[in-house]
Amino acid sequence: MSDEIRQEDLAAAEAILFAMGKSVEMSKIAYALDKDMEDTKTLLSKLSASYKEKSRGIYINVFEDRVQLCTKKEYYPQLIRIAAQPKKPVLTQTVLETLSIVAYKQPVTKGDIERIRGVKSDFAVNKLVEYGLIQEVGRLDAPGRPVLFATTEEFLRRFGVSSLETLPSASPEQLEEFEQEARQEITV
Questions:
Q1: C-alpha closest to that of 27 among 61, 74, 81, 66
Q2: Hey, CA dihedral for 97, 102, 103, 105, is it positive or negative?
Q3: 135 with 78, same domain?
Q4: Are the beta carbons of 65 and 25 closer than 8 angstroms?
Q5: What is the C-alpha to C-alpha distance for residues 52 and 23, in angstroms, rounded to an integer?
Q6: What CATH code is carried by the domain that includes residue 148?
Q7: Is 141 exposed, middle or buried (0-12, 13-18, 19+ CB in 10 A)?
Q8: Which residue in 38, 61, 65, 155 could disulfide with 133, CB within 3.0 to 4.6 Å?
Q9: What's the average model confidence in pLDDT over 12-16?
Q10: What is the number of H-type helices and E-type strands within the chain?
Q11: DSSP class of residue 55?
Q12: Domain identity same for 66 and 135
């Protein structure tokens, strides 16, 4: 990239992100700006840095290969005074367990989830689809062609995770504790 980032390119990238209102693939931004991916990433990084100033109300959020213009959390109180307050989904223990299974085992069928949890999971899976945290991503090539589920971009956004690779992993001690709990549940 040339040493100089053109103000017009910064403004164009900002306009694209603002107008789309949702996340946009970096490759599409690169195409729109007639730039290669490296130049586009540099340009978006510079634009993101300009939003990090304390007096700015927005920031650029990155989800794997997608970017989105978002409102800074500290300005939510002012925003909700004029916008309808969105109903936050309630994630019960059952729904969270199901979401965890999908996040770590995806793509996964409802049958797989039920085998892991040991109980029916229709309600939890339906709620997660309704909340936009998981989605159907295909069908398993097996009898009955069961639906495969995976997490969505909304899942990454809500849980502040930039990619699935950054999900926390359990320590060996935690895994041992989980195994002991599972053995106790089986004997009860």
A1: 66
A2: positive
A3: no
A4: yes
A5: 19
A6: 1.10.10.10
A7: exposed
A8: 155
A9: 92
A10: 9, 6
A11: T
A12: no
